[in-house]
Amino acid sequence: MRKFERAFTLREALVSTAIVAVLAGVLYPAFAQSRLDAKNQLTIAQLHTVGYGVYMYAATNDDWTPAGVDPNDGWSSAPRRIIPLAEDMDIFWDPANAVPGLAGVEHGTDWTWARHTSIGANIYGFLGSWDHPAGRPIMAQENLAKRMAFTVSRHADSAYGKADIVNFLAACPVPQTPCPDCSWSSEVNAVYSAAMLHGTSFPVLYGDLHAAMERTQRVMVLSSNWEDADACSAAMASEDPGSAFYSTLREFWGSPVSQTE
Question: For strand 148-152 and strand 201-206, is the pairing parallel, antiparallel, or unpaired?
Fold first, then answer.
């Protein structure tokens, strides 16, 4: 007499499949968040290394930072001056935003790589810029514990990094309305575009060398049109921000018109 082994019924197979699908739906977001958290921590570690490089440079230059943009030394001079001290070019690449085709470019006299690093410098709020080509004195700056020095940055319309962060523009992004005819569109959306790769918060190195995740909406004014963004940028760049709200933003981004604020 033949014996028949009992097999799964269709109902049991469907129930098993449903259970597996539910478990996958529960676990996948947790795995994705864990992976994002790991990348964020790696970015924070690299930001710390960049910050140590700035302080090492300042220690041998009477407390002055390197210039973010030096008219006598081409564009994006800060990374090229920090790299020899940190001895690691990879610290300027954000793990969440790998930059294709440039990570292997030799630093030194070739400054092409320095314009496209995906960790950018706050050139108008912490380092020097066109207005302060000699850099800025670190200890003379106010609110270093609240001042963003370096953070993630990228071109809004490509995967390439954006090494120079213009604070009064980056504070006022226009995420919903591309501006292909505006030469400054990448400056406006540089930090916001990179921040979106990190979730609702993004990694920031502050002027006192501590690093943390900062909430995007706390330190940026998201505009729906370029007119509102222009007004926001004008308030950020003025000597008198005109409101407590913009004064709070200035604590984070710094003032483009003062070496100490």
Answer: antiparallel
Q: What is the pLDDT of residues 75-97, one digit of tens each?
A: 556 777 776 666 666 778 888 87
Helix (H, G, I), strand (E, B) or coil at 26: helix
- Laid out side by side, the sheet with 164-165 consists of 164-165, 119-122, 148-152, 201-206, 211-215
Distance of alpha carbon 150 from alpha carbon 205, whole angstroms: 5
Cα 66 to the chain's mean position, in Å?
19
Residue type, 7: A
Q: Which residue has the tokens 């030096």?
A: 70
DSSP for residue 244: H
Contact 74, 130 (CB under 8 A): no
Distances (CA, A) of 37 to 24, 135, 196, 197: 20, 33, 14, 11
Tokens representing 110 are 């070739």
Does the pLDDT at position 155 exceed 50? yes
Distance (Å, rounded) from C-alpha 33 to C-alpha 95?
A: 15
Average pLDDT of the chain, as a whole number: 76
Specify the 3-state DSSP secondary structure of 260: coil
Q: What is the pTM of this model?
A: 0.80
Spatial CA neighbour of 91 closest among 37, 146, 54: 54
